Amino acid sequence: MNEQYKEMAGRLIVALDYPDANQAMNLLQELEGIPCYMKVGMQLYYAAGPDFVRELKTRGYKVFLDLKMHDIPNTVKGGAESITRLGVDMFNVHAAGGKDMMKAALAGVDKALQSNSSLQKPLVIAVTQLTSTAQDVLNQEIGIPGSVKDAVIRYAELTKSAGLDGVVASAQESADIVNACGKDFVTVTPGIRPAGSDQGDQKRVLTPGEAIRNGSSYIVVGRPITGAEKPRAAAEQIIKEMLEA
Ligand SMILES: O=C(O)c1cc(=O)[nH]c(=O)n1[C@@H]1O[C@H](COP(=O)(O)O)[C@@H](O)[C@H]1O
C-alpha cells in the first residue's frame, strides 16, 4: 500500500449508518485493511453507544462521532467533554447554535484534556446547512433568505471566528469555504454520489472526484458503500476516483 493511497483513503469517511453493532462489524470486516475513517452517527450510537466507539478505537480506526450537538452552551460543553473522553478523532456541533455554543464545545474539550493528559484533541467541526437542504427549502420553509452558498459561508466564517477546526458542508461549497476561511480550515463533505448512483434524500451532491477537485479535506460516504452489492469494491472504486482527481 503506497503512501498516496493511504493518505487518500484516510480522507474517505465511511458512514456506519446501521441499526446495530453486528451489522456495522460486518462492514468493518468487509473493508478490513482499507485505512479509511469511520463515522458513527445517531442511528448506530443510540443503539450501540460508547462501547462501539471504544471498540473502533481499540481496532485502530480514526473515528468521527457525528452527533450534531445543538443545545444551550452549558449542555454542549458537557457533551463535548464526554465525547473527548471517548478518544474520538473528530466530532460535530451545529453552527446554528451560535458562537457561544461553539466556544462551549471547545471549553468542554479542554476540560477533558486537562483531566487526562493521555487524551488527544479531537477536530471540532460545525454543520452549516445540511446537504439534504435545497435552495427552495432554505428560503420558503426555513425562512432564511439568500443563496444556500451565502448561508454556508456565513456559518463557516462564524465557525472559524469561534475557533473551531472546520465545517460540514456540501462539496459544492468547498472551494468557496477554502476561499473565505483558508486552506487549513477543514471541509468535511457528505452528499457524495459516484456517477450513476441513487441520490436518495441528498440534494446538494457531487461525485468523489469533483469533491476532491473542489478542495474538500474529507468526503463522507454512506449508502453508495453500505448499500452496494460489493461494498469493498465500491469503496476501492471511490478511492481510485479520489486518487485520479
Ligand atoms: O454531519 C454529517 O455527517 C452530515 C451532514 C450533512 O449535512 N449531510 C449528511 O449527509 N451528513 C451525514 O453523512 C452521511 C451521508 O450518508 P449517505 O447519504 O448515505 O452517503 C449520513 O450519515 C449523514 O448523517
UniProtKB/TrEMBL annotation:
GO terms for cellular component: cytosol. Pathway: Pyrimidine metabolism; UMP biosynthesis via de novo pathway; UMP from orotate: step 2/2. One of its GO terms (biological process) is 'de novo' UMP biosynthetic process. SUPFAM superfamilies: Ribulose-phoshate binding barrel. InterPro entries: Aldolase_TIM (IPR013785), OMPdecase (IPR014732), OMPdecase_AS (IPR018089), OMPdecase_bac (IPR047596), OMPdeCOase_dom (IPR001754), RibuloseP-bd_barrel (IPR011060). One of its GO terms (molecular function) is orotidine-5'-phosphate decarboxylase activity. The keyword ATP-binding does not apply. Belongs to the OMP decarboxylase family. Type 1 subfamily. Catalyzes the decarboxylation of orotidine 5'-monophosphate (OMP) to uridine 5'-monophosphate (UMP). This is Orotidine 5'-phosphate decarboxylase. It comes from Paenibacillus dendrobii. The lineage of its organism: Bacteria, Bacillati, Bacillota, Bacilli, Bacillales.
